[in-house]
Specification:
98 residues; alpha+beta; GIY-YIG endonuclease
């Protein structure tokens, strides 16, 4: 099973949300619908655009990476996003070849 660390933003790209999941498609749906505890923040700030993700084979590694990224400055998070997605285009998992 793979685990994913991901970063969402809002349409104005003023807010960044970092999360971890074992099912990225399901979690994106939940964020989009404002479901669960995480839906409160992402719903309030309209963070539903996936701009970065990475995979990890292990839950502990993924959680550690999420915590690491959450402690970074915004500038460092932006640099990370730029490495995968320099135009910050919303990532569509169905068509992603990255």
């Amino acid at each position: 099973m793979s685990f994913y660390v991901y970063i969402l933003t809002n349409p104005a790209q003023t807010v960044l949300y970092t999360g971890v999941t074992n099912n990225l498609e399901r979690r994106l749906y939940e964020h989009g619908e404002g479901l669960g505890e995480w839906g409160k923040f992402t719903g309030r700030y309209q963070c539903n655009l996936l701009v970065y993700f990475e995979t990890s084979p292990d839950a502990k590694q993924a959680i550690a990476r999420e915590k690491q990224i959450k402690n970074w400055t915004r500038a460092k998070k932006e640099f990370l996003i730029d490495t995968l997605n320099p135009d910050w285009e919303p990532i569509d998992l169905q068509n992603w070849s990255g």
